[in-house]
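During the no-cost extension, the postdoctoral fellow (Dr. R.K.) reprocessed legacy sequence entries with the updated structure-token encoder. One reprocessed record is reproduced below for audit purposes.
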Amino acid sequence: MKRIALIVLATVLAFSTSLFGFVNTAHANTGQPAAINPSVVQLLAQPAPTRATIVVNSIKDAVNDPSVTTLRDAINKANADSEKDLIEFDRSLFSTPQIITLQLGELDIIHSLDIIAPQDTLTGRPLVTVSGNNASRVFKIQSGAAVTLAGLIVESGRVTSKNGGGIENLGKLTLDSSIVRNNSALNSSGSLHNTEGGGIDSTGDLTVNNSSITGNSAHSGSGIYSHGNLMVNNSTISDNSGTWFGGGIYHTTGTLTVNNSTISDNSGIGFGGGIYNDRGTMRVDKSTISSNSANSSGGGGGIYNDGGNIIVNNSTISRNLAGADGGGIFNNSNSTITVINSTISRNSAGTFGGGINNLGTNTVINSTISDNSGGFSGGITNLGTSTVIYSTISNNSSKFSSSVIHNGSSSFTVRNTIISGGQTQFAPSTDVSGSFASNGYNLIGNSGDSTGFGTKGDIVGTINNPIDPLLSSLSDNSGPTQTMRLLPNSRAIRAGDPKKLPTDPETDQRGKPRRAVDGSADIGAFQLTQ
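Re-encoded structure tokens follow.
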């Protein structure tokens, strides 16, 4: 409308000298630009129309009741408005927890709007619940609509032979300070097979801020199934369950950012108990992915990366379980993952790679891999290309093999790293097996079943003479993640590469300076010498 108005105004000005007198004719014969009449200036200075605010004053689910304004009424009015309206709730009714139970099916949003509900002033908990009554989806955002849902609990949504039990987003949705819980997406027979997005199914852009996605169920992407761009900030995605991929999040093709958030206690029978990344670009910052499970013959208890590119930074991946491979991370072929300043600990895999199972390209920098367990190679199994720099890999265990780090006829490069403390049920236990490429300054506790170590400043123990690097247990040593502190008299102290390469990190895993005043560096993820 504003664009049309400006075009009309320009047309009027062009002919206004003779018709309307809008143009001041004092300069008509002076060669100077014509001056706009003050009345036109005043017209242009008028403020743009403010958007309408619609106040919900009832918990009913009805339309056209002249005595009240329901949430459905408010959405219908906003859908009919050309502006982006604001829907609020009458504080005299909604100052205490209230439930709006849908009786007329899902709430269909076809136009941009904001729904802002009140929250408890002490706890911040939402006071307005919108329930699908286990009979319908709760919200559907249509393509082209930019919508904010704030301060809401979206619960008990249920769809059959469709996706998105709680919310289906085809547009641009921002979910703020809200809870999406106990929603489900089922197939026609009432099971979860071939359904997506128990909590939210999004083919548009989705931003989740300060919110909780919990207790939802579907075949894949039980918490969130994202086909587009997804950003999760300061939020928790927990206790969602599915029968196939992505118990917490299934993300495909777009960009996924997880920042300062927790992905925990999600489960799936297939792959990616916490997150399944399908050909997407993904970044995890300052977050925790913990206690998720990919049961049965599944892989990637914490993260399953299938053809995508992932960066994990300043984060913790812990206590995840895979029935098969990759308790913490499963990185498939044609996939890339980079782990920086992070801790992968206490994960478990039934077969290969308790911490990481890699078939693609895996890079670990300034990180700790500790206390993981697997049937074979409890720390890392590498069947692709792996590079580990300035890291500590210790106290991992294997049940059915004699080593905890295994390279299977692939490329595995190690520099300035501690690998030690492997525990197996087969004697003698060794820390590494396979062929490695040492770029120097590594401390290997027991190199028994490996080749490639022993040059360029490496400190290498053997089956008969293992080396204890003297590390503390995994604990809080300041910094965003737990680390293993170097104890006094550790042979890793000042034994790192004396030459700083351009690609070397400036700090250790905790964010402390990587090199001492004299320029020396310690081996591993923890820099003791300052």
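The chain has a mean pLDDT of 91. The longest helix spans residues 2-19. The remaining legacy entries will be reprocessed before the final report is submitted.
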